[in-house]
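can u do me a favor
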């Protein structure tokens, strides 16, 4: 089934085509057109306008619906992201502390290794 708007567009297109066919043999000045020709053109323009306005309203409604859905998704994902971050924050803090401790231990051991290498060199020289 063809929606009403599409039916109007088809009707308007057929009327416009009929109008242009009539116009090919009609006088070129609109003031010399018969009332039937003017009426046909007016109906065609009106129906095309009605169809266009209907499509614009439909698209505006769809746009509002999509904008609302986007806002809901943004708030939902924002809350979920914050909850996940809170869940793992303690573990992240512990891991950072362990990493810092490991770096300190590495630095301490590198200093000790350098000191022992110096002692070995001194012993080799003697």
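np, heres the sequence
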């Amino acid at each position: 089934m063809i929606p009403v708007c599409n039916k109007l567009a088809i009707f308007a297109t057929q009327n416009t085509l009929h109008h242009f066919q009539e116009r090919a043999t009609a006088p070129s000045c609109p003031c010399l057109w018969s009332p039937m020709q003017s009426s046909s053109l007016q109906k065609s323009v009106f129906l095309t306008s009605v169809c266009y306005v209907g499509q614009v309203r439909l698209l505006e409604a769809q746009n509002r619906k999509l904008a609302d859905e986007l806002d809901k998704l943004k708030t939902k994902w924002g809350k979920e992201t914050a909850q996940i971050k809170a869940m793992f924050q303690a573990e992240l803090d512990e891991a950072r502390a362990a990493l810092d401790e490991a770096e300190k231990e590495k630095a301490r051991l590198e200093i000790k290794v350098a000191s022992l290498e110096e002692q070995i060199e001194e012993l080799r020289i003697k």
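Residues 35-125 form the longest helix (91 residues). hope that helps!!
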